[in-house]
Amino acid sequence: MPEISTIAASSDNNKSNVAHDDVLTIVAISIIAGILCNVLHEGIGHGLTALLSGAKSGILTTVAWSSAHDSRLVAAGGTLVNLAAGAIVWLVLRKSASLSVSMRYFLLISFAFNLFTGTGYFFFSGVTDFGDWAAVIQGLHPHWAWRMLLAVGGAIAYFIAVRLVGNALVRYLGVPRAQQKRLRRLTLVPYLSAIALASAAGVLNPLGLQLVWQSALPATAGGQSGLLWLQYYIPRGARPIQEADTLSRSSTWIITSAIVAVAYVTILGRGVNIHL
User: Fold this and answer.
1) How large is the C-alpha radius of gyration of the chain?
2) pLDDT per residue as tens digits for the range 24-35
3) What is the pTM of this model?
């Protein structure tokens, strides 16, 4: 019975693919991608925008940028930079066929983190009337209409982002839609890694733990939640454009991640005073 044999062989291959993806390497890549996403949001999006538009100094932490100078542009800057970064990474992903599987995975997770952070913040602020985009629409009337626009528009944008990331996962990492177990591992581990990183770094911030519970963790746990369910919304037409390869253990990624994470938590987690 050749058909049964073929199905059994395919099943064995799927299990093998899942087993060979190294979890430590996935965690390491996810941590570096998460740190990059956060630095872009807080450091470039908020901090640099504030400094270029009039601020003389400020405190940069993993949970916020704080300075005397504030504006709608500064509040919007974090999200806009994440969306711009997501677009740039997507362009690189489209030309990534010659890159290693670990680098393609790094680009993919960076794409997901930046895109989900950018689109998720619209929805978060619209529903809670808190956070960056609540500051952007503060004083605009009718306020309820602006909140509804953020919530509805954010939900639509986030779903589109989920589809884009899912499609990229299949096309550029070469993982077929049918390999649900492998897809789950490649998306669940980054999600949990992002939450652990945000928690560890946020505890040390000088702006108070309340900001961690109100902003940092909801933005991470909620903002990156698309990783938990994107595998079910991958477009049916998505097809790998190259053969799948497994993520084998990489001491380079693991050691680099450990060094960067320690510096991120102990230095940026405690806050850095920046002066012009």
Assistant:
1) 20
2) 999 999 999 999
3) 0.90
- Residue partners of 60: CB distance under 8 A and separation at least 6: 42, 43, 47, 268, 271, 272, 274
Among residues 110, 101, 92, the alpha carbon closest in space to that of 30 is found at 110
- As a whole number of angstroms, the distance between CA 257 and CA 139 comes to 42
Euclidean distance between CA atoms 179 and 238, whole angstroms: 13
Convert the pLDDT of each residue in 129-160 to its tens digit: 988 999 999 999 999 999 999 999 999 999 99
Distance CA 40, CA 27 (A): 20
Sequence-distant (6+) residues with CB within 8 A of 25 are: 102, 247, 248, 249, 250, 253, 254
Check if the beta carbon of residue 133 is closer than 8 Å to that of residue 126: yes
Q: Please, are residues 125 and 134 in contact by the beta-carbon 8 Å criterion? A: yes
237-267 pLDDT tens trace: 889 887 778 999 999 999 999 999 999 999 9
d(CA 76, CA 58): 17
Which residues in 171-202 are b (16+ Cβ under 10 Å) and which e?
bbbbbbbebeebbebbbebbbebbbbbbebbb
Q: Which amino acid makes up residue 208? A: G
Q: Could you tell me which residues come within 8 angstroms of residue 134 by beta carbon, excluding any fewer than 6 positions away?
A: 125, 128
188: helix, strand or coil:
helix
Q: How far is CA 35 from CA 58, 67, 158, 170, in A?
A: 20, 22, 21, 24
